[in-house]
Amino acid sequence: MAAGPLVLDGGLSNQLADAGHDLSDALWSARLLADDPGAVTAAHLRYFRAGAQVAITGSYQASFEGFAHRGLGRAEAERLLALSVRLAREAARRAEAEGAAGPLFVAASVGPYGAVLADGSEYRGRYGLSAAELERFHRPRLEVLAAAGPDVLAVETVPDAVEAEALLRAVRGLGVPAWLSFGAAGDRTRAGQPLAEALAMAADVDEVVAVGVNCCTPADADRAVPLAARAAGKPVVVYPNSGEEWDAAARDWRGEPTFRASRVAGWLADGARLVGGCCRVGEREIAELARAVRGGG
């Protein structure tokens, strides 16, 4: 980040769905860690070929509890969590062998507790659990992911300040840097707290190297980037979704996309150093974003 902004990938789930994979399972993309790991590597590789420099792993919805519901024990769950990092690393290796300009990086995705519930709770937060309870949930899988050797932990789509408190405790001492990224609606977290106050919680946490927002609308991202830079005094990470709205009941997206690479100039001017896309942002959009970041339009 000191040398210049880095381009993140786009939505892993839409890459996999476009390739014909059924993601209706409660594990979402994480199901393919067990059922078709090669498909996950291929999806990461397509984003690297499009110009991404950072792959976010398929572990967003992965947890010991989620795998247990599929009859997988703890040892197998640990293997699959670690595998998510190795698959992204293999994609980076292949991309560099093909001539992609490196270095290429791997960010281990750590989704919120609500993602594991698979009912849209990550867009609401306020699960009725304490920070201590949430820390106990997150810490074991963070330890496994950190031990797998990612370049950074992508602590993402955090809906509220209580879960952020838990995650900030949980990343301490893992030996791997992290970014902290909230879901946002206007100047509020998804749970309705002031976003600036939630972002400021990371200001004094040395393990956190960037703060920001993801899986919000591009318009919300426009507002959040300068807010994040002021609140935490750290580089900003921003990767909004396409601008469409997720209907949790119908498990489908509604509305029109508003993601445009032309927004990147404003994000960079306001302090963003990690820029990409989230749900419904694909290879074409990431390629356009990469060109914009590198001054090509």
Describe the structure.
There is one protein chain. With 297 residues, the protein is α/β, with parallel strands linked by helices. It is 42% helix and 16% strand. It contains 12 helices and 12 strands. The chain has helices at residues 12-18, 31-35, 37-50, 64-69, 74-97, 113-117, 131-147, 161-170, 195-200, 218-232, 264-269, 283-293, and strands at residues 6-7, 54-56, 105-110, 152-158, 178-182, 184-185, 188-189, 208-214, 236-239, 245-247, 252-254, 272-275. The strands form 3 sheets. Strands 1-12-9-8-5-4-3-2 form an 8-stranded parallel sheet. Strands 6-7 form a two-stranded antiparallel sheet. Helix 8 (161-170) links the parallel strand 4 and strand 5 (178-182). The protein is globular, with a radius of gyration of 17 Å. The two termini are 21 Å apart.
Uncertain runs are none
Strand order of the largest sheet: 1-12-9-8-5-4-3-2
Q: Gyration radius, to the nearest Å?
A: 17 Å
| Mean pLDDT metric | 93
Number of helices: 12
Instruction: Work out the number of β strands.
Output: 12
Largest sheet, if any? Answer: 8 strands, parallel
The rounded distance between the terminal residues' Cα atoms is 21 Å
SS-based class: alpha/beta
Helical residues, percent = 40-55%
**Helix and strand run:** EHHHEHHEHHEHEEEHEHEEEHEH
Strand share of the residues? 15-25%
Structural shape? globular
Give a topology summary.
Layout: E1 6-7, H1 12-18, H2 31-35, H3 37-50, E2 54-56, H4 64-69, H5 74-97, E3 105-110, H6 113-117, H7 131-147, E4 152-158, H8 161-170, E5 178-182, E6 184-185, E7 188-189, H9 195-200, E8 208-214, H10 218-232, E9 236-239, E10 245-247, E11 252-254, H11 264-269, E12 272-275, H12 283-293
Parallel strand pairs: 1-12, 2-3, 3-4, 4-5, 5-8, 8-9, 9-12
Antiparallel strand pairs: 6-7, 10-11
